User: What shape does this take?
Amino acid sequence: MTIRERYQITGQETMTGRKRSPKECHEAWNSWCEMRRRCYKTNRHNYKYYGAKGIKVADRWLGKNGFDNFVKDMGKKPTPQHTLDRIDNTKNYSPSNCRWADKQTQAMNRKQRTGKYPKGVSMNICGNYQVAFRRMGKLKRYGTYKTLSEAVKVSRGVMQNEV
Assistant: This one.
């Protein structure tokens, strides 16, 4: 049996065969490690969205007892599908601003897009303006228009009719 297979079965060894510590076997270990990487590892692909924007991890969750404090504050993950979520995405990772959330909750907790076009309007590769809204997971298209003013008019009408 290869190390990889043994790791996948037991979860007790790393890919190199090193024994994992009890902390590394904890369900919250990867979430805690990723949180710190996003905020402090400048070579990470997602650092620009976290650390570069000033997002930090609470001092209580760093250092020698950081992981233990994190587990005490956050508690158990409700399910393996739950991930760490900041309630207010402009604030730091801290006990008062974090929770375990499912994908649906996290999707609703995204920063609002501040594009150059109004809500529901985008420009396609041909230079025309499209109006479309996502409702209950499905994209509904309301047409393509040559001018931005036409598209904005339709977009506003759609939003008014849905209220």
